[in-house]
Design a protein that fits this description.
This protein has 14 helices and 5 strands. Helix content is about 60%, strand content about 10%. Bound molecules: fe (ii) ion (2 copies).
């Protein structure tokens, strides 16, 4: 008769070598690869060297019991199926073994057919459980990919929306990209969770989106603004907030808070509402530090770029007045990383 060759490898553990030899020979005749061990320690050392699909183990053995072996195997090799072999009067232990994760048990004295059926069943169950775990893993992977795709899409929509504003205001898209990257670094340093870091990176680009509602002659005026004109400029905060308010998405809620409050000052002298200290949402307090920094060190329609040293001197004088002192200190700490971002994302004319 032609022998069927299985790829599965089986380890038979019994302190009585006649028992393990008989089982192993019977299974080898069925085409399985088999090894034998005479105690738990021997079995574990074989497991460390070879890959097994199934272990058939006696429970009562000198030294560590088969139940202990079962515990080690479940922990170290969760994909290995294990069948326990037990004496007739040992049913309670057998049930316990099943609860601990054994795939089945055979009661001594056994008929070799029983062993064979147990082996086929256990291997099939193991195959199905590995397959279903694979399937779950693939599903999780798909969900992760889809989520990342949605995130990229959201980000692109937000950036394009803010870029639409850039067509009118001469403030560049690179300013918004830099603010996004700066804010993620600062938020991380402040201990924000990963998803919130992503949210500020994306939503901060919309801080000045309300400028889309301002008249060109004021927005693009290359000279100093009159008080009345400045009063108009200030309305970009509430216009932006109106555009972004009332969303179900936390990303847009954060964008709303930033658009509305990024010109508020820590000492209560900012606009539009003169909020004071912690009343100003944290994302807006972060934005105000980064927005001022990036604006000062880059060229604007009404002035040239300042050397960083000068910009920092001006900003330090406003620590605790314009800026939240803790966020400002954190900003100083991460400055070297912000400089790298500046070097990488330059304005077109730079
Ligand atoms: Fe602004
Ligand atoms: Fe800005």
């Amino acid at each position: 008769m032609e022998q069927v060759s299985h790829r599965e490898r089986i380890l038979v553990v019994d302190d009585e070598s006649q028992v393990s030899d008989i089982i192993a020979q019977c299974l080898m005749l069925e085409g399985y690869h088999c090894d034998t061990a005479d105690c738990t320690d021997h079995a574990l050392s074989l497991c460390a060297r070879n890959h097994y699909d199934l272990i058939i183990s006696d429970i009562m053995m000198p030294g560590k019991t088969g139940i202990e072996l079962l515990g080690f195997v479940r922990r170290l090799y969760p994909d290995v199926a294990i069948i326990m072999v037990t004496a007739v009067d040992d049913r309670a232990t057998a049930v316990n073994a099943l609860q601990l994760g054994a795939y089945g048990y055979v009661i001594k004295p056994f008929d070799l057919n029983e062993i064979f059926i147990g082996v086929v069943n256990a291997l099939e169950r193991r195959r199905l459980s590995i397959q279903s775990r694979e399937y779950e893993r693939r599903l999780e992977n798909d969900v992760r990919q889809r989520t990342a795709e949605i995130q990229r899409r959201e980000e692109e929509i937000c950036l394009r929306l803010s870029a639409a504003c850039g067509y009118r205001d001469l403030e560049t898209g690179s300013h918004n990209r830099r603010l996004g990257l700066y804010s993620a670094v600062l938020a991380q340093e402040l201990g924000w969770a990963g998803p919130a870091q992503d949210e500020i990176r994306i939503s901060i680009a919309m801080h000045d989106i309300g400028k889309i509602g301002l008249p060109d002659n004021i927005l693009r005026k290359p000279a100093r603004l009159t008080d009345d004109e400045f009063a108009v400029i200030k309305t970009h905060t509430v216009i932006g907030a109106r555009m972004l308010k009332g969303s179900d998405f936390s990303l847009l809620n954060m964008a709303h808070a930033i658009a509305l409050s990024h010109h508020e000052k820590w000492d209560g002298t900012g606009y539009p509402y003169g909020l004071f200290g912690d009343e100003i949402p944290e994302p807006a307090r972060i934005c105000s530090v980064l927005d001022v920094y990036d604006a000062l060190v880059h060229k604007r329609i009404y002035r040239s770029a300042l050397p960083e040293e000068e910009a920092l001197a001006i900003m330090t004088a406003s620590r605790g007045a314009h800026f939240d002192p803790d966020i400002f200190d954190c900003f100083i700490d991460v400055l070297p990383r912000l400089r790298t971002i500046r070097a990488e994302v330059r304005d077109r004319e730079e």
